[in-house]
């Protein structure tokens, strides 16, 4: 890891030793498929409730399909995650927004996070930008006061050292998948960013099923504890309460005076799998023994015979044409009857110029592969 400040941008800090993620966490991420994430793509909103029961803010999360462009030519399908938290603590407005692009492998390719605290005439913002370029992950953290950057820190990490990394954006998807499974892998220790944007570990633990009152209804919720273990500060811990389909019903940050809750039950996402297509065995069919099919056969046969007879009556030239063909066929007795018939009826084609039948029968025919021609010398 490299660290740079705004005053000495080129100075290098000692390389931070990145802790490894647990084997179970890495395997968990590799086993998540796109079809499992598909029902996790939805938007939800909660309200922030103070300890006295008053509404002091809101919390919303949305996940949708999108495309991320690495440059003007290459695009990659990904998930666009947006999260916003607004509230007032001790009369001070606080806002946190997160916008992240997460691949289908749950790798974060870019993330913007902004935390603002607006004191009287003294607004302070912390802006963090994370972006992946080739085999490097670059992090830029800036503290802004009155639109002026007063401190800038930059870091870079090799992606090969970040196996099992879960950013804040990807964490929303991971939590929803765990909630739908109602299970958290054993020893689920991932990598994450702490408040200073240093790489640290984060752990997930299942706390089981609990009861929660949502409006007038009491529902079962699955509780997951997430903790970010910083090397320089105390751990940050959250409790997430999930409905069966992955909707968040309650969110608590340990030590915070605000609690995020839903006020009414959302429409749960139904993911029942369709019934398998029925398989019908082939049954031998003897149409002559089937009364209905045999009756249809006789009716169709009579209709065709009547139709053919009517056509012949309306076209008497057909009988004369066939009589001429059969008479010439019996006189010539050709070896190739098909080619002979083709030559005979070709003279009646509208695509050929008018000519006398068989006036050139001694010349090569397009209907024959080989025609032997015997001719006398011109002087004979």
TrEMBL record:
Plays a role in primary ciliogenesis by modulating actin polymerization. Residues 354-380 are annotated as: Disordered. Belongs to the CATIP family. This is Ciliogenesis-associated TTC17-interacting protein. It is found in: Cell membrane; Cytoplasm, Cytoskeleton; Nucleus. Residues 25-257 form the Ciliogenesis-associated TTC17-interacting protein N-terminal domain. Residues 354-363 have a biased composition (Polar residues). Keywords: Cell membrane, Cilium biogenesis/degradation, Cytoplasm, Cytoskeleton, Membrane, Nucleus. GO terms for cellular component: cytoskeleton; nucleus; plasma membrane. It comes from the Eukaryota. One of its GO terms (biological process) is cilium organization.
